[in-house]
Amino acid sequence: VGEMAALGCFGPTVPVEYGGAGRSGLDYGLIMQELERCDSGIRSFCSVQSSLVMYPILAFGTEEQKRHWLPAMAKGDAIGCFGLTEPDFGSNPAGMIVHARETADGWVLNGVKRWLSNGPSADVGVIWAKTGAMDDAKSVRGFLVPLDLPGVTVHQVHDKYSLRVSESSWMEFHDVALPKDALLPKSGGLKSPLMCLTQARYG
């Protein structure tokens, strides 16, 4: 991880002021292509860190969230994962049932996510959850969830047939108490996580 960070593999399109290289999407794609020549699991690690974790913090986060997480992620000092897929709604994110309930102090998160790349080594997850009714896809919001919080359980996926260098996980969230500033405030609706997947296509 440290060697890849030193080469600028994490967040190449993130502005320099936040620890990135300020490069183009084309540059990012070429970097990922070269890593892919070695191993797709190596490329996956960098792509998830860059597109699915650093990008949503940059696009939807507060200035404080950007300053706290992005430089650390660019240096490889913090690792992130992305939680969108669920056991019953793999390719239909509109059907997600992970829910975040707003409280006076913040949020309470409940549910299960599957196939979180980088999960077993991650410090934080960008977790997508509905904040309104289950049939309201417009209520989907992104949350920054430190994975050492009480109520978070991380399970590593073993015996995969491919991408074995890439760590995969599934996670349970049971009454996880989040502060108000866990919310990525500019996120809203399914458009937000789909924007992250669009960015990931460069990688």
Description:
The protein has 5 helices and 7 strands. The protein is an alpha+beta fold and 203 residues long. The strands form 2 sheets. The chain has a 4-stranded antiparallel β-sheet with strand order 2-3-7-6, with no helix packed on it. Strands 1-4-5 form a 3-stranded mixed β-sheet, covered by helices on one side.
Fill in the keyword field for this structure.
203 residues, alpha+beta, four-stranded antiparallel sheet, three-stranded mixed sheet, 5 helices, globular
The averaged pLDDT comes out at 95
Q: Strand-residue fraction?
A: 15-25%
What structural class should be given to the helix and strand makeup? Answer: alpha+beta
Poorly predicted residue ranges: none
By DSSP (H or I, 4+ residues per run), the number of helices equals: 5
**What percent of residues adopt helix (DSSP H or I)?**
25-40%
- Report the strand count: 7
Q: Please report the distance between the alpha carbons of the first and last residues.
A: 17 Å
Order of helices and strands: HHHHEEEEEEEH
Strand order of the largest sheet: 2-3-7-6
Radius of gyration: 16 Å
Shape type: globular
Largest sheet: 4 strands, antiparallel
Q: What is the strand and helix layout of this fold?
A:
Blueprint: H1 2-6, H2 25-38, H3 40-60, H4 63-74, E1 80-83, E2 99-102, E3 106-113, E4 124-130, E5 140-146, E6 152-156, E7 169-179, H5 191-200
Parallel strand pairs: 1-4
Antiparallel strand pairs: 2-3, 3-7, 4-5, 6-7
Brief characterization of the structure:
With 203 residues, the chain is α+β, with helices and mostly antiparallel strands. It contains 5 helices and 7 strands, in the order ααααβββββββα.
